[in-house]
Every structure is written in structure tokens, then in C-alpha cells.
Design goal:
It is built from nine helices and eight strands. Helix 1 packs across helix 9. It is an alpha/beta fold and 218 residues long. It binds 2'-deoxycytidine-5'-monophosphate.
Length: 218
């Protein structure tokens, strides 16, 4: 069994930024499980599967194979052998991933991939149900959150930096909707594991969050 750090929390809380930095400092492998759901979402978009139609999505799952690899330490997602890493981070893919991740067949498909990585390697794994469901015996569990306003502002700044035209209000609305979906779904909803440490990054710098989390880890 590897040494396992689980980091869960809502969209835009900074999980991936923080987890990457902790991984580097501690020599763990960073596993971004959201990217796996996004990889499958690309498949559903290609197949024009209706995310509200469980049967259709479950059916579409059958001919999708998601695997991960690392290039210079950076996680790559392969969908049926094709590297789709560069296509993962759009709102369209994120929304499809959020909707279809509520479907049991979709979660089932990725569960063993996630657990096997944690068995074999020292990992920091980020997602929504890592501490509660995927790795209930993780050595360290973190629930990383921040206010909706802070998360919306961070995403807004990130998009502006890339030159993307966007509205702060729309981003905040999107985040609220995503939170609602991720937290209220029947299967593996986003919630803090009882034994997870709550870290609210609203008024913290990235470095402060990294230092605090590293302090809990071996
Ligand atoms: O972290 P992210 O935004 O890349 O995740 C995309 C969607 O995938 C998110 O809305 C919920 C879902 N997800 C999940 O259900 N379980 C995980 N462990 C990770 C992500």
C-alpha cells in the first residue's frame, strides 16, 4: 500500500494547484480524478449521449477506456488510447463531467483505476469522494474549501489571464449550480469525511495552504 493523501472539496477550491505543489514537495504522485471524469465526458460529448439519460450514458461507457500516464511528472489522460489532456478544461466538458459523474456506471468505471493507483504508489489524490469512498483508509484526509465569491473570483482571474471573455456573475452562478449537483447527488456526494481536516483557503495564500497541508503529511 502506498502512502495516501486524499484531498476533496468543491469546484474551484484550488485542489489541483495545491495538490500539485504538495506532491512536488513531498515526492508523491498527483492524481487528478476530476480529469478522469472529464476524459469520459469527452467520450459522451463525442457520442452525443444525453447526460440526463442514465441508460444512454451507461451504454456509452462500454466502449470507453480511460487510462492515465505521466509525462515529465504531469498527468496525461488517454481516452481509448488518444491523449485528450489538452481538451479537458472547458466549461462544456466540466458540466458534462459534473452531470454524468452522478451516474453509478460512470463512477464504477473509474473506481478501480483510482484505487489501484493508490495501492501501488504514494499519491495525493484530489476529487469529491476520495476520503469518503475511494480511499476511506487514507493516511491524511483534507477537505479544502473556499467561499463561492473567492472561488468565482479565482476562476474569473484565471480566464481573464487567458484572454477569455467572461462574467463574474455567470461564473458564480455556475459554481453554485455545480456545488448543488455535486453535493446532492445520491451516489458518492461531495461531503467532508468525518476524519478529514477542514482547510478554508478563502483568506489564505497558496503557500500558506501548501505549508499547512504538508504539515499534516509524512
Ligand atoms: O475537479 P473537476 O472540476 O475537474 O471535476 C469535474 C467533475 O467531475 C465535477 O463536477 C464532479 C466530478 N468528480 C466527481 O464526481 N468525483 C471525483 N472524485 C472527481 C470529480
Amino acid at each position: 500500500m502506498g502512502y495516501n493523501v486524499a484531498i476533496d472539496g468543491p469546484a474551484g477550491a484550488g485542489k489541483s494547484t495545491i495538490a500539485k505543489l504538495v506532491a512536488k514537495k513531498k515526492g508523491y504522485i498527483y492524481v487528478d480524478t476530476g480529469a478522469m471524469y472529464r476524459g469520459l465526458a469527452i467520450h459522451f460529448l463525442k457520442k452525443k449521449a444525453d447526460p440526463e439519460d442514465r441508460q444512454a450514458v451507461a451504454e456509452a461507457c462500454r466502449d470507453a477506456e480511460v487510462t492515465i500516464g505521466y509525462e515529465d511528472g504531469v498527468q496525461q489522460i488517454y481516452l481509448n488510447g488518444e491523449n485528450v489532456t489538452g481538451m479537458l478544461r472547458t466549461e462544456e466538458v466540466g458540466n458534462m463531467a459534473s452531470k454524468t459523474s452522478a451516474i453509478p456506471e460512470v463512477r464504477e468505471k473509474l473506481l478501480e483505476l483510482q484505487r489501484s493507483l493508490a495501492r501501488e504508489k504514494d499519491v495525493i489524490m484530489d476529487g469529491r469522494d476520495i476520503g469518503t469512498n475511494i480511499l476511506p483508509n487514507a493516511d491524511v484526509k483534507i477537505y479544502l474549501t473556499a467561499s463561492v465569491e473567492t472561488r468565482a473570483r479565482r476562476r474569473y482571474d484565471e480566464l481573464k489571464e487567458k484572454g477569455t471573455d467572461c462574467s463574474l456573475d455567470e461564473i458564480a452562478r455556475d459554481i453554485r449550480e455545480r456545488d448543488e449537483r455535486d453535493m446532492t447527488r445520491e451516489i458518492a456526494p461531495l461531503k467532508k469525511a468525518e476524519d478529514a481536516i477542514l482547510v478554508d483557503s478563502s483568506d489564505m495564500t497558496i503557500q500558506q495552504v501548501v505549508d499547512e497541508i504538508c504539515g499534516y503529511c509524512r
